[in-house]
Specification:
single chain; 267 residues; 8 helices; five-stranded mixed beta sheet; alpha/beta
């Protein structure tokens, strides 16, 4: 392990420790995002509007779930490009459906992937282990020369890695392999919006302009991609969105077609 890698792991673990310090067995809800800073806006493949929307979705979703929460509800809300991932546990199937229902009514949510399970909540050891796995995957992604690590958001729930992001197929396959080969990972679920190499090039060309604020609210990878956004979206924002595309891989076990998620068991 190089000194640089060790330093990165130490920094990631320190951040994870700070996050875990605020957790206890009775915490009913966690929010998956962080504040949107200038540096993140400049390097993230989402538009600045989408980043702000994601933060608002997580905060509003947290508030709505808190309104219906009970002692058996431990749910994490994570939003990326207005697609929401729900993870955690509830005490009954009716609660699982209620959680999804209230999140679907949050402004600007365009899809929800409900990975909440019925069962006992995670203990502090399990949460600590998940935080450690997340830090290892993020560090490994940073060490890859052929992946832009900031293209992916990494969420871990009881050893299951959820990769969210906007990336090419090649990038997504590489990130999946990195996650699969991380110790402690049971399987990888990919929630990635696939763009072509040309769309990526167009997006990267737009980023300097976005940083200067000359692009306004327009930030789609390409005009053709934005035209494929679901017409039924309830978003009040007029920012074009890239299309969702299934990501098949050998040996994958697909979730129901409506979820748009591919589950990739660890080799």
């Amino acid at each position: 392990m190089t000194t640089t890698t060790a330093q990165r792991i130490a920094m990631a673990l320190a951040a994870g420790a700070l996050s875990l310090a605020g957790l206890s067995a009775c915490v009913p809800l966690a929010i998956g995002g962080a504040a949107v800073g200038a540096g993140m806006v400049a390097t993230d493949r989402r538009s600045s509007d989408a980043q702000v929307d994601d933060q608002a979705i997580e905060l509003r979703g947290a508030a709505r779930i808190r309104d219906i929460a009970n002692d058996d509800m431990n749910v994490t809300v994570t939003s990326f490009n207005r697609q929401v991932l729900l993870t955690g546990t509830v005490g009954a199937e009716t609660d699982r459906r209620r959680v999804e229902d209230v999140i679907r009514r949050v402004d600007n949510v365009r899809s929800v992937v409900n990975e909440v399970v019925v069962g006992p909540g995670s203990n502090i050891q399990e949460r600590s282990n998940d935080a450690f796995i997340t830090s290892k995957v993020k560090t490994s992604l940073l060490d890859q020369k052929d992946i832009f690590a900031n293209s992916f958001k990494v969420v871990t729930e009881r050893g299951v890695i959820y990769l969210m992001g906007i990336a090419t197929r090649t990038e997504t396959d590489r990130a999946t392999d990195v996650a699969r080969n991380t110790s402690g990972v049971r399987k990888v679920v990919r929630m990635v919006e696939i763009i072509s190499d040309q769309e990526l090039a167009n997006l990267q060309a737009q980023q300097p302009l976005n940083k200067l604020g000359t692009m306004g609210g327009s930030s789609s990878p390409s005009q053709s991609a934005s035209s494929a956004a679901p017409a039924s979206s309830t978003s009040s924002s007029h920012v074009p969105l890239p299309p969702m595309e299934p990501l098949p891989s050998p040996g994958s076990v697909s979730q129901p077609a409506s979820s748009g998620v591919i589950t990739s068991p660890v080799r």
